[in-house]
Amino acid sequence: MTEHAPEAAGENGETYFDQARYVTDGQYEPLLSEKNTTRVAIDDDSPLPDDLTRDSLELPSLSEPELARHYTRLSQMVYGIDNGPYPLGSCTMKYNPKFTEDVAALESGAVHPDRSPETIQGTLEILYRLQDYLGRIGGMDAVTLQPPAGAAGEFVGIRVATAYHEHNGEGHRDEVIIPESAHGTNFATAALGGYDVVTIPSDEDGRVDLEALEAALSENTAALMLTNPNTLGLFEGDIQEIAAMVHDAGGLLYYDGANLNALLGRARPGDMGFDVMHYNVHKTFATPHGGGGPGAGPVGVVDELAPFLPKPRVRHSDEGYELFDPDHSIGHVHGFQGNWLVLVKAFAYIARLGDEGLTDAGAKAVLNANYLASQIDYEVPYGPFHHEFVASAGNQDAADVAKRMLDFGVHPPTTKWPEIVPEALMTEPTEVESKETLDRLAEAFGHAQASDDETLETAPNRTAVGRIDQTSAARNPRLSWQALEDE
Amino acid sequence: MNGTRTTGSPYAPHTDDDTAAMLEAIGVDSIDDLFDIPPEVWFDDEFGIEPHSEREARALVGDTLEQNDDLIELLGRGHYGYYVPSVVDHLADRSEFLTSYTQYQPEISQGFLQALFEYQSLLVELTGLEIANCSMYDAATALGEAATLADRVRATSGHRVLVPDILLEGRRSTLENYVAGTDLEVETYPTTDGNVDVDSLETALDEDVVMCYVENPTVRGTIEENLADIGSSVNEVDALYVIGSDPIALSLLQRPADVGADVVIGDASVLGLPTSYGMGLGLFATRERYLRQVPGRLVGVSEDQSDRRVFTLTLQTREQHIRRERATSNICTNQAWVALRTAMHAAYLGPSGLADLATRGVRKAEAVAEQLDDIDGVEAPVHDRRHFREFVARVDRPAKAVAGDLEEHGYAVHVVGDHEIQCCIAGVSDEDIDGFVAAVTEVAR
Q1: I need a surface site. Which of A194, A244, A418, B166 has the fewest CB within 10 A?
Q2: Nearest to residue A82, comparing CAs of A98, A69, A100, A104?
Q3: Mean pLDDT calculated for residue range A237-250
C-alpha cells in the first residue's frame, strides 16, 4: 500500500489526514452479518395465525459494545467537514456549528405531526419565524417549509408553476427552459413535472446567451430555471433583462437556491425578478448533510403564487399559530411537514448570525473562492467568481486529479461538471476555511498537477482503501450481503 | 494568529491580516469589488434579523419549544414514536457520519457506504425482495416513486393507479403530485372493516391498471388477511403490486415477496428516529428485474487495487446528475443519516428483539382495545380484525369532544370520524397506558 505514497507528505510541515483502516482476514471491517447472524423462527410464540406471519427472520444481532465498535470503526473510515476542507462545487459544504445539534435534540421539539395546533404552539412558532426569516433573505412574499430536499423544492416550484398557469387558462404551456450548465436535478424535475426540457447554451462569457433565450421563449414556455450566480460561479448581470424576457413571454422565473450562499446580504432573488425559488437550508444555513441527507428545501414565492403552495401552511392570528390550506393548493408533497430536525437547526443558525453574520458569510465565501482561484495553476476560465470557480485539469483526467488530491488529506472538488469546461474541477471552499487551509488546498492542487500519469492513475494511496473499480460494481451489481452469500 | 478575527459570521476564521493578504493576492481593494452585481439589484437594505450569542440562540429555541404542551401521545397513523436506544444517538452523531456528504469519493467514505449497504441488506431480509435503495424521503414520496416506476416498466401502457379509500391524505396527495406529469390517474378501491374489499378490488382490476397499492398494517391498524390472493389478481392484469409497510411490522407479518409483491415502500424511521414532527425515511425495495429503473441511490460491492472487498455508489447512470431529464427520479439528497440510524437500531434489537417488538405491537394493541371496550360509552376495536400497534374506537360522545377532554388530561389521540378516535400504543409505557385508560373512563360519558 505504500509504493506510491506521496514523498512530500508531511515533510514540509504540512498537516495530512490519514484515515483509520481495520483489516480482518484479508477484508476490511466485517459486515454486521459476518459478526453474528441469527435466525429466529416466528411461529412459536406469535399472537397471529401462521398464515399472517413470516416463517423466520435472519439478521445480525450484536451486543451494545460490539455495535459501538463496529460503527465507531466505520465512522473512522468516513471523511466529514469536521475532518477537513470539503470544497465540492455547488454543494456548499460548510462547517456545522455544534450547538444546533443540541437545539434539535430538545425533547419538546419531538412531537407527533398530528398534534392539535393549540398544543404545539412552540413548534409552529419556530416554523413561522423560519418562514419569515427565509422570506426576508430571499426577498420572497410567502414560504413553505414542506419539501424535504432541494430537488423536492424544485418539484414544488414546478408544480406551483403548472397550477398557476392552469388557473389562468394557460395550461398549454408545456416547456421549461434550462441553461446547459444547470444542476442535473433541474432537468429531472422538469421532466417529472411533465414538461419538455428546452436546453439553451451559455455564451462565450459563461452566462445565459440572450439570443438563445429569445429563440427558446414562446407561448409554450412555462418557466426558466436559473441559478444566479450560475454553476460557473458567475453572476448573471443581465438578470433584469432575462426576467423581463421571460415575463413578457408569459413564463415564470425559477431560482435554484443551491448557490444562494454567495449572495447573502448582497442581492436577493425576489429583487432580481424571480417568481419562485427554493432554499437549500442544509447548504446556505449550515445544517449537517448526514452523508447525503436529510436536507430541507423550503420554497419561496411572490404573492401571486402563494395560493398554490402545498398544504398546510403556518400562519399567525390573534388566537396564536395555526395551520391553513391555501385556496388553490397543489396539495401535499410530503406525508407530513418535511424534515423538522433540519429546519430547526437552520432557524437556530440564522438566529445566531443575524444580518451582519449572514452578510459576512456571503462576503467571506466569495473572498475564499477568488483567493483559491488565484492560488492554483490549473487554468480557471471566465471570472470574476462568486462562491465557486471551475478550473480545468487540461490534459489530465479530472477524476484522477481528484483521487490524487485525496493523498494530501483533503476532499477534492466536484469533477467533470459542468461539461462546458473540459475536465472540470468545480471548487467551492465556502467561508469557513481559513487562508491557511486554502493554501493547503492550493498545494494539493499543485501536487496533483505535478504528478506523472502513473501516479495519477494509481492514486489514492494514503486512504483507508485503494482505488476502487467502479466499472465492475456496475457491471456485476451486488447490492446486499445476501447477494454476496449467493456467490 | 495574525491579527484579530474580523467580526461577522462567527464561523468564518479570517483575521484582518488574512483578509488583507488575500485581497492583495487577488488584486482588489475590498471584498465588495469581488461582487459584479449590477447596482439595480444590489441589496442595500437589511433583513432585520437580530444576531444572538450561542447561548441566546439556544435559549430562543428552547424557550419557544417550551410552549408546547407536554402530552402523552397515543398518535400513529404513519408516524410512530418508538423508544430509540441512546447508543444510536451517540454513534450516529459522530461527526464523521453527521458532517459528511454524498459518497462521491468512495475511498474516503467506506464507513458510510458499508453502513448503507448494511441498511439495504436489512430491507432485503425484511421484504424478501432482491434489492433495496439506500433511502428516499418518506413513505408518501416513495409511493409516488413506485407509481412512476410502474409507469416506466409496464410492457403496455395504462392509466390507472389503485389505492385504498382509507389512504392517508398526505400520501394520496403526494402521489397525485408525483403522477401529475404522467398520464396516470389515481383511483380508490373500497375497504371493508379496515381491510381491502377483495371482491370490489377484483372488479376494479383491468388491463388499464398499472399499479395497485395495499398497506399492511393498514392506516386503521388492521392486519390484511388476503395479501396473496390480491397479489395474484394484480399480477394477472400485469400491474405492479406495491405493498406499504415498515421494518417493525415486516419483522412479524407476511413477507411481501411471499405474497407476490413487486415493490415495498413505507416509512423505515419507525426504527432509529424518535417522534420528530413527521420527518421520515422512505423505504423502497423491489425485484432485481427493475434494477436499471430503480429511483435513488444504490451502494454496491467492488474491489480495490489490493482485491479487497470495498463499497461504492453504483449504477449512477440512472441518476439525475448523469442522465438529467431521462433519469429514473429527480432525487439527489436523500435520508442517508436516518437510514444509518435505522440500521443501527435494527442491529441493536437483532431478529428476536425486532420480532418481540412487533409481537408486543399486536398483543398490547389488542389488550388496550379490550380495556377500552370495558368502559361505558366506548366500543373497541371498531373493526373485527387483528390489529397492529393501533386501533379505532367508537365513542358515544362526539369524538372531537372526547379528544379535547383527553388533551386536558394530558393525552393526545386522533379523531378519525364523528364518533371515532384512533389510539396507538407504539412507544407508550404500561404506566402511561394505565393513566390513559383511566382518563378515557372519566371522559367517555
Answers
A1: A244
A2: A98
A3: 97
Residue with cell 423550503: A298
| A7 pLDDT higher than 80 | no
Closest Cβ opposite residue B101 in set A88, A183, A193: A88
d(CA A68, CA A47): 33
Question: What is the Cα–Cα distance from A390 to A395, expressed in whole angstroms?
Answer: 15
Q: Cα–Cα distance between B302 and A377 in angstroms, integer? A: 34
Q: Compute CA distances A467 → A311, A470, B97, B277, whole Å.
A: 47, 9, 21, 42
Interface check for A381 against chain B (CB to CB < 8 A): the answer is no
**pLDDT, position A10:** 56
Beta-carbon separation of B352 and A61 below 8 A: yes
Number of H helices, E strands in chain B: 14, 17
Whether residue B64 and residue A125 make contact (CB cut-off 8 A), yes or no, is yes
Predicted ipTM beyond 0.85: yes
Portion 446-475 of A in contact with B at CB < 8 A: 458, 460, 463-470, 472-474
Q: Give yes or no for a contact between A19 and A79, defined as CB atoms under 8 angstroms apart.
A: yes
Cell digits for A106?
Answer: 430538545
Verify whether the Cβ–Cβ distance A353 to B104 is below 8 Å: no
Which pLDDT score, from 0 to 100, does residue A12 have? Answer: 55
CA-CA distance, B412 to B76, in Å (whole number)? 10
Check whether A6 has a pLDDT greater than 50: no
Residues 6+ apart with CB under 8 A from A87: A93, A372, A410, A411, A412, A413, A427, A428, A429, A430, A433, A441
Q: Could you tell me if A276 and A299 are in contact, meaning their C-beta atoms sit under 8 angstroms apart?
A: yes
pTM confidence score: 0.97
Cβ-defined contact of B97 to A478 (cutoff 8 Å) = no
Contact at CB, B79 and A336, closer than 8 angstroms: yes
- B181-206 confidence digits (pLDDT tens): 999 999 999 999 999 999 999 999 99
Measured CA distances, B145 to A39, B132, B171, B264 (Å): 32, 13, 12, 11
Chain A residues within an 8 Å CB radius of B65: 106, 108-109, 122-123, 126
Identify the CA nearest to B224 among candidates B187, B263, B254, B252: B254
**What count of Cα atoms within 13 Å lies in the side-chain half-sphere of residue B276?**
26
Confidence grade of residue A43 (pLDDT, cut at 50, 70, 90):
confident
